[in-house]
Design brief:
The protein is mainly alpha-helical. The protein has 17 helices and 4 strands. Among the domains are: 67 residues, lambda repressor-like DNA-binding domains (434 Repressor (Amino-terminal Domain), Orthogonal Bundle), CATH 1.10.260; 183 residues, no CATH class. Helix 2 packs across helix 3 and helix 5 packs parallel to helix 14.
Amino acid sequence: MAKVTKPRERFCGPRLRLARSFNGLTRADLAREASVTPQYIGHFEHGHRQPTPVLLDAFATVLGFEQSFFFGEPLEEFRDEECHFRRRTTTPVSVRTRVLAHGSLFGRLVTFLDESVKMPPERIPSIPFTSPEAIEEAAQICRVEWELGTDVPIKNLVRAVERAGIVVTRFAAETLKVDAFSRAGKRSVVVLNADKDCYSRSRFDLAHECAHLIGHGGLTTGDPETEKQADRFAGALLLPRAGFLREFPRSRTLDWTALFALKRRWGVSLSAIVRRGYELRLLPATLYQAAYKHMAYRGWLRHEPEEPAPEEPELLGICFQQVAKDQGLRETDIAEILGWPSSTLSRVAGISVAEPESGPPHPGTVVSLAAARMKRAL
């Protein structure tokens, strides 16, 4: 009986476009690097042409992907209208396109891990933000569901969010125009900007994105009202009313020593503390204005002193360890299955992945066999 061979998959134009966007390149940029015209790149991305082996090699080299990545079905992509961007109105379209491509690749990795190991079940309450009081109540419900206590500081917000089944990552956005973005799906994700070195504000960004997942399901966000609602939720989650009322310093002047003590205890920026004080009518408008003027003068609106320690995502690392234990697949094997070099996996996942060792195979060849079998199955 003749051996039946699997037909070669066709080149997938949307995958080329995704890889190009991930690298922040225009068609003209890629055309220049590959020595073709931008029109040719458009033909390839729309599936009207198939690249030659030499051109395919050039695409893989320029974009940092294995050649196998460009074959197969189009990947599920993050669409602009279904993602929540913090400060959408000030984020250029070119930057959002690159960030969305990063999110799409990250989503592909999360789907792979979600199908390979048992991640925590999602516990994201759905509560419409109909009023400030409804937002305050939603924050309390979230604290109860996530077992964070009702009026005490959250020790590690990233860990709490990941235990609720939301995958968190940090990536080098190479711009400060994107604070964070999130997307609800089969597995919700939040992406934080690793270039932002103000960790108290990064915590607020994470709480802000959780607000979108909880209160803005099915809505297009980014307008002033939804951003204001998300900020209110973030403040209420990180600085719950009962605890904040108990500890906020009351005086006729601003007590910066006491405010810094609050920052150290609650892990929240001075600007968020001052804003929360004004929301809860603990600060009159005059002191609120004076506080922001003072912080602007001291340069604290950009970089505050006494920042908390960074909270790093942990769920991905745990999943990688579990896949290695259960299936014998290392990070480098997962990268090979996805058609990515290890360096691209590092960029997408926001973690350090060692390059595979060169030379003859060693006793761990079972890992390579497992990767090969899984790659054929995809």
